[in-house]
Design a protein that fits this description.
The protein has a single domain, classed as Maf protein (Alpha-Beta Complex). Helices cover 32% and strands 23% of the residues. It is built from five helices and six strands; from the N terminus they run βαβαβαβββαα. It has a six-stranded mixed sheet with strand order 2-1-3-4-5-6, sandwiched between helices. The mean pLDDT is 94.
Amino acid sequence: MKTFVATKNFGKLAEMREIFAGSALDLDTFPLYADVDETAADYLGNARLKARALAAQLESGGIVAAVLADDSGLEVAALGGRPGIYSARYAGVETSWPDRRERLLEEVRASGSTDRGARFVCAMVLLLPDGRGLDATGIASGRIVDEVRGRFGFGYDPIFVPDGDDRTFAQFPEEEKNRISHRGRAAAALLARLRA
């Protein structure tokens, strides 16, 4: 099933293609996709905003296809759950990922908290061409480390170590990370609902 992903983030697209490889969904991007303001109060609400916006853009172009959207974030205990839904805009939209990670680590150090607990959360929405919608959520719990480690992944992956491991997500081979990541778990739950 031809499925357009509501993203301009090619790191995310590559990861989602890997996660959904072998499934019924054939993922692609829509070059004219225009980002929407993520004004919802939670991840699922933002994923729905993105999915509906892309569906409307496809419809206006006469394209009939499924739409896949997600919203995810990193919730850090020492920061009271921040940055959460603002993870991609943390420290400003124009801020680079290395600077964004460093800013987060500085805030964690300045918090005075010794709690390094954190979790990634991902909400995913699939809108089918017949108008039906499915959604799922995935969570990966772990901790923040004080230095950037690893060369894979993107975003906050180089400073996040999942429970039960000593490697950051950026040190995991892609296939292994995708089995335990928040996005991988959300996708597995979404595909189970689609099959059902």
